[in-house]
Design a protein that fits this description.
This protein is mostly helical and about 180 residues long. It has one domain: Chitosanase, subunit A, domain 1. Helix content is about 60%, strand content about 5%. It is built from eight helices and three strands, in the order αβββααααααα. It has a three-stranded antiparallel sheet with strand order 1-2-3, with no helix packed on it. Strand 2 and strand 3 form a beta hairpin. Helix 4 crosses helix 5. The longest helix has 22 residues. The protein is globular and about 50 Å long.
Amino acid sequence: MAEFTNAFQLVIAHEGGYGNDPDDPGGETYKGVARKIFSKWDGWIKIDILKRQTGFPANLDKDIDLQQDVIDFYRVNFWDKMNGDSIANQKIAESIFDFGVNAGVGTSVSLAQIVVQTEPDGVIGPQTIKAINEFVPEHFIAAFTVAKIARYISIVKKRPTSRKYFYGWICRAMGEN
């Protein structure tokens, strides 16, 4: 079965550190945790305290409790919601998890369900897990990658200010960065 730690390391490499891009609909972010979306995350209290200290934002990465908050956040809000531990193939689990972090769990799961031809309800239950685990991994990854790219094209068409993220999203979808 898939391992959270390996998947988390790949995701966190994509998510970066601290940012506050005015074009990002999530607003202020830390390691991919968007303040506008996850305003009640306990890590924001620690970040607000650390902002007042010298060395911000580099000091964030040195705070051990904050780093554990980040790990716990991704496990509870993404990995567990997509039943990552039940997916047999690590690469499939990593792809669904990574896209879930980037586009939302429901969106990622729905796309995975479309690929494996189950009801696209955005929730990974036993039927979806069974279908994913029976699918040829290379075929799943190829079809899921195409679906992710189509989703990114749709986002840029609806929100042109997101065009600056498009190349990075495509590289991420292709597993290139």
